[in-house]
Amino acid sequence: MLGDVLETPPADVTIALAGDIARRLYGLDGALMPLDGERDRTFRVDTEHESRVLKIGNPADAPGIVEMQALALEHALASDPTLPIPRLHHTLDGLPTGEIDLDGARLGVQLVSFMSGKPATAGETSPTARRSLGATVARLDRALTGFTHPLSDRPLLWDIVRLPELRSKLTAVPAERRSLVARELDRFDENVPRLRRLRRGTIHGDLNPANIFFDDEDSERIAGIVDFGDMVHAPLVCDPAIAAAYQAFGCDDPVAALVDVICAYHAVCPLDPAEVELVPLLAAARCAQSLLISSWRVEIHPENAAYILGDADDSFEALGRLTEHDPAVVARGLLRACGLERRISLSFGDSLELRRRRLGPSLSLTYDEPVHLDSAEGVWLIDVNGNRLLDAYNNVPQVGHGHPRVTAALAGQARRLTTNTRYLVDEVALYADRLVQLLPRELSVVMFVNSGSEANDVAIQIARAVTGNDGVVITEHAYHGTTAVTAALSPEELAGRPLERWVATVGGAETLGAADAAARVEVELNGAFARLASNGEAPAAVLFDSVFASDGIFRVPPGYLQMAYAQARAAGALCIADEVQAGFGRVGTGFWGFAQDGVTPDIVTLGKPMGNGHPMGAVVTTPEIAAEFADRWHFFSTFAGSPVAAAVGSAVLDVIEDERLAERSETVGAYLREGLAARLGERATVRGPGLFIGVELDAAVTARAIVEQMRANGVLVGRTGAQQNVIKIRPPLVFSKQHADRVIETLTRSLELPR
Ligand code: PMP
Asked: What CATH fold (topology level) applies to the domain 1-114?
């Protein structure tokens, strides 16, 4: 029954009995001192070396409540070991909690480390301290992700979502305060459906100042969060909203207190707009709830009035201050502060026109009916009208749009530190170290850049410095970037203009699709070197995109790179693998495109998926080449290799590993290719490695019509190849077989339409 526990006083445990329990269950001998508590009986136990807290559950609580708290502490610390929450001590039997029988009731017992510090007195915390609180609560909630316990769904009086059940206690509230509380109850009732739609989790539930300690030396740093007795399964945002509500108590500007806590929380554990919008309501609800519970309890326990009514004046005042503004205005301020304010949405026509005028004509838009986007999640792009489009095109969001682990890493590191690479920042070197573990042993030096183009540009600069030559060989219809040098290496964009004298090409689609591709490239490379020579140039590098995306998408033909690399090296050139498209598991478990042919390049360039949308790239090479380059050139790029990029890049690798995305690319890619091949039969050639798939059709007009038709049916794909007759499919790697089925179905139906 809701309220039972608050009506049952803490267990009647004397100091002597508590000492006996500590000895018997934990082998702990020490001086005991009772601590304050509304519900559980707690003692501080001081031994010679340390202090601990012994907690004995309330007789009206199932012993499992104490167990739930203990397991939650262990769960959270396993995920975030430096979280400032109590460490659990197991019983002599090695169990997380103990039990005792007292007066016919079975009570749970728990022993944890004692957390010292200054309690967070309401109204006395600085903005920095409140932000530190918000960030720590976010870490706690993030660390509790996935924690469940059967008792976290128990009815709990302090569960904010149950506020409407307290309406019966309204008569206990002093008459002069009643109308404000009643109004809050009404407002809450109206919003219950919105609350039901929010993401849920197991939350601390009672982040009041008595449960929060600041560091003795640094009064703006959180040293401890204690008392997990009100843990409950509830909308996640209740936790920061409750913490923020108490910070509003006695505060000159209660709305500013909300902003401090919520923004800092959001930076670590991103909130949705729907969650942030409800913070003012939830904070006010906590004030009302506190007034209702204390007014009712003091009637039952008048002897304990001072303790019970400790917060009542502050709650009432904060409730008044928080509700004197229009809640929509407060919510909008919070959204803006969190960077979540809905963009001013232009009409489609205005958006198109403004873009045309301000972004210039060299930037084309995809699709006859351009996609007017609002947001994205996972494999979905969401337009301003709320339509969800299946993203089978974008390979930058490799681990899915807006992956929470990536956005949390990004926000967290941006808040902590971002700077250039001329300082010692461990995360950056550790990330580089992690990256090279994924590459062949020889490639062990990383130079960070900001894009694929910059990576290729620097790679060419290195090859030229090391070889003393200028020439570069690429495939016929390659794309390698947009800088002056890499644009010259991108015939796809040259629109028939002649190549520079230092550029020569080898065959594209025809060679790559031939059974004897390796033999052909041998002949073609000789021809390319000869053409360079006739221009007075010698080769510095051969540069191949490992999925040959703009040539029409091909698996590396067997022996192709082996042959080309051997010849290039014999001619004194370096071998550069452009992994901007192919890298990071896109091609399957081999992880890198070049690995398909068992070669080791001299230089690998990375970009696109590396930061899942955060602009970052890298050039990875051997220590010898890096040293030769350093003899001739300094290298530095202001934003490249920032701590934020390192944090994001690491999070991307975490997700690729933990969600086994390279394996997924392999299996879902094979499924998609086989499904397309089976359904399309003679009408198309389906090819490509992993989740980088090309569907070659007879003509560009057919491919164009299909891409447009699929867009109209809510599936986004693109086109490539010298003839623009190859449908390009390269979705985020979190693509599932169901998503693949939708692509197969939509593509097949589009092809079958009469035209
Ligand atoms: N190399 C390849 C193979 C690419 O496909 C691209 C981009 N499409 C680039 C380099 C250039 O990357 P960015 O646009 O990040 O500069």
From this structure: Phosphorylase Kinase; domain 1 (3.30.200)
